[in-house]
Amino acid sequence: MTLAHKPGSIVGTPFFKAPTDYPDSPLSKALQQPVLLGLFLPIQAGGWTNSTLPRSTDWRFDYNRDLTLKAEELGFDLVFALSQWLPKGGYGGVFNGQALDSFVSIAAMAAITKKIMLISTMHVLYGPWHPLHLAKFGATLDHISGGRWGINVVTGHRAVEHEMFGWNRIEHDRRYELAAEFVEVLQRLWQDDENFSFSGESSWKLNGGFVTPKPNYGRPILVNATGSDAGISFAGRYSDIVFVTSPAGSDIASALEALPAHTKKVKDAALGVGRTVRTLLNPLVISRPTEKEAWAVADQIVARADSRTPKGFQTFNSDAQAWKGREGRDDPYAKVGGNIYLIGTPEQIVDQFVKLKDAGIDGLQLSFFDFKPDLEFFGENILPLMKQAGLRNA
After folding, report:
1. Which whole number is the average pLDDT over 370-390?
2. How far apart are alpha carbons 95 and 337 in whole angstroms?
3. What range defines the domain where residue 100 resides?
C-alpha cells in the first residue's frame, strides 16, 4: 500500500483508533476525573522560574524520578517534560542549558511507575527522527508502561534549534503539514496489519515498513502544544490533549477573560472533524497558609530575578505562537514562571482552579518554584480542597 498526500494538505484519518476508544485505557480512566492533574517536571536547569533565590529544584534524573513517584502517590494523572536544543550557555543565567532529554528521561520512568501517564516532548522534524524509528520505540514504551506513555508532538521552536541540526528553518505552517504526514505514518505503522509503503511531501520514505507488537490501545497518547491556527487544526485532527496557553498573559484575571474563546476555538477544531480534545494549562503555584506569606515568597522570587536570562531569550528568534505576546508585558510577577501564576492560600488557589475549569480548561499541568516542598504542601493542603470542590474524585 502507498500513501500519497496532496501537497500542502493536512489529512486526518478518522478510522485510526485512539486510546479514548478503549474504556480500560489509562487515558480513558484518567478522563473520568473532573479535572486532569499533571506535573511539569523540571528536567532543565532553572526549572520554570528565572530567579537566583535558593531552592531544591534540580534538573537531575534522581530529583525528577522522586517527583514523579510522589505525584503518582498523590494520584496525579500525568507527568510531562519539555525538550530543548540550545547552544552553550542556554538562555543565560539560571537557564544555562543543562537539561535532560525528554524522551529518554520520561522513558526511564516507565518501568518504575504503575499508574501515572508519561508524556515525552519530541521535535519530530529535527535531525534523524524517522516515523519508523518512533513507531517502534513508541510501541515498545507502550508495552513497558501498559499504555501510559505518550508524545507531545512539537514541530519546532527557535531558529537556533533548526540550525543546530544543519537545517534551514521551515516556515511555521509548513512544519505542521510535515508533522501531519509524520503522525499519519506513525498511526498506520501502529495499526496496519500489512507492510506499509509511503511517499509524500516530506523526506521520509517507507518501503514495506511494519511494526509489531502493536500498541495496547490503538496508539500511544498524542499531545500537542499550540496557539496558532495551523497548530490548532493539527491538534484537532490528531491530539488527545492540547496544551494551551493564555493569549492574554500570565496574570489570572487576564487569562480568565481570554481563555473561554480560546479553548472553544481549540475544541471546535476537533468537533469539526468528529473528534474530542481536552485542554491542558500550565499554572505555576505559590501557596502558603496565609496570603501574606504566599506573596512574600513571590516578592522574594521577583527580587532575585536573574537579569541575564531575558537577554538570552531575546537572542533566539522564535515564531512559535503558543507563548506569543507574553514577553514585554509589564508584570513583574510574570518572572515567577508558568504560563499563568497563581499566588495565595490553598483556598484561593482552588477557587482559581474552579474558575479555570469554568473557562474551558480540562486539566492543570502544575509547576512550582521549589518543587519537592511545594509538591508536598500541595498534596497536604490543596489536593483535599480540590476534592471538596468537585475538581478531583475522592
Report:
1. 98
2. 12
3. 2-388
